[in-house]
Amino acid sequence: MSRRGKTAKVSTGSFEDRLTALPDDLLHHTLGFLEAGDAVRTCVLSRRWRHLWRPIPCLRITDIDAFRSVEKLNDFVYKLFMLRDAGSVLDECELHLRGFLQLDDFCVNLWIRRVLARRARVLRLDIYTNLPTSSEEPLVELANQPLLSQHLLRLELHGVFLKERFLDFSSCPVLEDLKIADCVLHTVKILSQSSKHMSIMGCQFLWDMRPPRISAPSLVSLQLHGSNMIPVLESMPFLETASVNLCQKYEEFCDFCDGGSPEVEKCDCGMSELYWDNGRKRDFSVFLEGLSSATCLELKASPEMIRFTRDLQCCPPFSKLRSLFLNDWCLVFDLQILLFFLHHTPVLEKLILQLCKEPRSAMKIGGSSSLEQSLTLRQLKIVVVKCQMIDERVHNITKILSSCSISLAKINIQKLYTVIQWKTSNSEFSLLWAVRVCYNCRARGARFITVDLS
Fold first, then answer.
1. Residue in 303, 360, 296 with CA at minimum distance from that of residue 325
2. 313 three-state secondary structure
3. pLDDT tens-digit profile of 31-89?
4. CA–CA separation, 206 and 212 (whole Å)
5. Is 70 helix (H, G, I), strand (E, B) or coil?
6. Could you say which of 76, 264, 288, 294 is the most buried, measured as most Cβ atoms within 10 Å of its Cβ?
7. Full-model pTM
8. For the CA atoms of the chain, what is the radius of gyration?
């Protein structure tokens, strides 16, 4: 009898609610990792949990399947902010709303203002819902008003339409990290005096008279990839690392900027507005000037990019650059572009060249002897050449670098391999098909092949 009683006592103790016994601050922090709907549902656990969700420091609205309609989403977010503890600080807010069609611009703008009013330090907004399939279905457009926040440290925007006044972050004096992806930017300037890290990925720039500029004098790192154009980069004296993809194509030759025509009316690219500020002298670099303070630079471009070729003619010195990554745009015109660029990197220590599979133009050593003779890279410690095949370009690179007093021991050639992963759940014919796929892939040069037959 006593044994059964002891057993019952142990069983009762095993269901002790240790989670509820934790301090409020720890529970608030833990609830902040949950999706907002799940955090609110904890109010039914017990009387103590009834209001625990109200002051949580992080709000994450990411489970769009739980709402099923825009009306339910709007109603939930409205009540969430109305019932939340008004005196509590909101450290972070994440609104991940991909999948909803016809989101209300007014509601989204209202949510942003309420988040900032709660002194949020981090705001992530991921929409990309109203795909621009027609003029009647544009992206969600954020209000053309500057953000006002003395606390915002990090801002991430995905899939929205932004205009000029919104992109003036002068009223966010402590903003350090700015990330903009898959957005439409209708502006002539992105301004942030305080930002130290900026990333603009896959965006479409729209502009009327002058090409857009980026003014961010405090930047330490910069990423520009996948946009329809590269904006003009103003001075960035504290820049350390930059990764810029200039691989636009289909640029047109400009009679004024490229042909030397004195008639500014013949400018078709819009860059004459920049040269106008300089007395109509085309003697400064538009893109490279802002990158000239970097110590680590990744620069990808296309040989067809006229504006970048124009920029190289006024290339500024990269007096701090230690590490440089270039793709095969620098190998055209008998390697003269590569040598010309290296002339402006006096303290370069590491050079990485990544070559595409097929040569884009015929290469000849002749014509570059004067640049070779005057080139000295005393600080250069290693050259890495990444390629899918060792062809004439690789031999020409080693030959020219050797003629510039660079030891072959410093040149490391790495062959790139294709990695292919394949998964199938159809057991019938899977093994036979896998063998055939592996054989074809291996014949095409694939080095690593992963096949999952589960």
1. 296
2. coil
3. 888 888 888 888 888 888 888 888 889 999 988 777 878 888 888 888 888 888 877 88
4. 8
5. helix
6. 294
7. 0.78
8. 29
